[in-house]
Amino acid sequence: MGSGHLMRCLTLADALRAAGAACHFITREHPGHLIAHISQRGHRLSVLPGADDNVGEASAGPAHAAWLGATWAEDARQTAEALGAAGTDWLVVDHYAIERRWEQRLAGHCRHLMVIDDLADRAHVCDLLLDQNLGRRPEDYQSLVPSDCKRLIGPGFALLRPEFATWRLRSLADREQRPLRNLLISMGGMDRPNATGMILGSLHPLMRQHDRIQVVMGSTAPWLESVQAQAGEMPCPTEVLVDTPAMAKLMAGCDLAIGAAGSTSWERCCLGVPSVMVILADNQRAVAEHLRNAGAALLIESPQQIASALPACLDQLRAPGSLKQMARAAAAITDGQGTGRVLQALIRLTENPHAQPETT
Fold it and tell me: Where is the Glycosyl transferase family 28 C-terminal domain (predicted)?
């Protein structure tokens, strides 16, 4: 799965720790893992063995069952062992391959269970469910969770790091009169199809010396060196930033972001950043279409369409008022306070399991 899943869990864990909780991550050592990021943030960590290549599609279960790297039963057993006998108030799950059977198996190892989901495509047994996506409705989970499950639905609950809310007002104030000169490209930590390289290739004949491009990539991205070499051939200053901790500042300073249609979409919306989104996986499509329909972004359907679609997107955004209008539409989607709202829901349900957090 994309690095956004880990980053939103780290965001929630940091907020919980600031509120006095101790957080313990349990993750599997998949190829290209980002386990070092967890250690660097100072959270307790248990690493499960690497993926079993023989599991494959034979694992009966949800559509993404093969992504688990083990059968659901084996993964549940290993997770229970990692939890140990210590009392766990909340077990928070963020994985498309996990559903009710796994959750039932772990029920005796925690007091409460929270699921972070984006797909609404499988049943859960949980006390709290978070789906931060635009267009999602509480009733989408009506038949998928217990009747007493509390649901936090929509971008108002997006798990964003606090610096995005900090930069929000400054970013919005600066957008009223901006021309289209500074571009930020961020296609996720891995970018396996090399969409970044395709974007730079498409931009090469369109950019001028007074323009600027900043590219954000992860240190484990397979095309990193290729993109770095390509950046050196661009007609305008082009900088490649690796594992940068300053995404909020970078987004606030750009005129347009070209990015994947994943969880970083909510970061761009918080800062009112006009966007061109590229769909890299089918599970990003619904979110991307809702953002396009809301006027918060333009959409490129696949990496293969970048060369033909991106120049047209830039022409459209250079029209008078286009950037300003898109910035306002994006900023209306989320205010960057979602992590605090989720934290308060966890605290309320810990103190009173029958409390009713807001659901939209």
Answer: 212-330
Ramachandran class of 300: left when φ > 0, alpha when ψ lies in -120 to 50, beta otherwise: beta
pTM metric for this prediction: 0.89
Q: Are 200 and 319 within one domain?
A: yes
Confidence check: pLDDT of 58 > 50: no
From residue 113, alpha-carbon distances to 127, 170, 312 in Å are 6, 37, 46
- Domains identified in the chain, total number: 2
Residue whose token pair is 């100072």: 42
Mean pLDDT, range 29-41, rounded to an integer = 86
Domain hosting 276: range is 162-331
Percentage of residues of the chain with pLDDT beyond 90: 80
Do residues 30 and 5 lie in contact, with contact meaning Cβ atoms separated by under 8 Å?
no
Is the Cβ–Cβ distance between 231 and 198 less than 8 Å? Answer: no
Do 246 and 127 share a structural domain?
A: no
The answer to whether 183 touches 162, Cβ cutoff 8 Å, is no
* Residue 6, helix vs strand vs coil: helix
- Flag whether 341 is marked binding: no
Query: Residue 156 has which token pair?
Result: 């108002």
CB 198, CB 167: distance < 8 Å: no
151 is in an annotated binding site: no
Is 60 a residue whose pLDDT tops 70?
no
- Of the listed ranges 59-68, 258-267, 289-298, 304-313, the least confidently predicted one is 59-68
3-class secondary-structure state, position 41: coil
What residues contact residue 6 under an 8 Å CB cut-off, 6+ apart? Answer: 27, 34, 37, 38
CATH of the domain at 7: 3.40.50.11190
Report the amino acid identity of residue 87.
G
Q: Which residues are designated catalytic?
A: 5
Six-digit token string for 172: 């919005």
Question: Model confidence at 89, in pLDDT bands (50, 70, 90)?
Answer: very high
Q: What is the mean pLDDT of residues 227-241?
A: 98
Q: Scanning the structure block, which residue is given the tokens 């780290």?
A: 10
pLDDT range class, residue 360, cuts 50, 70, 90 = low
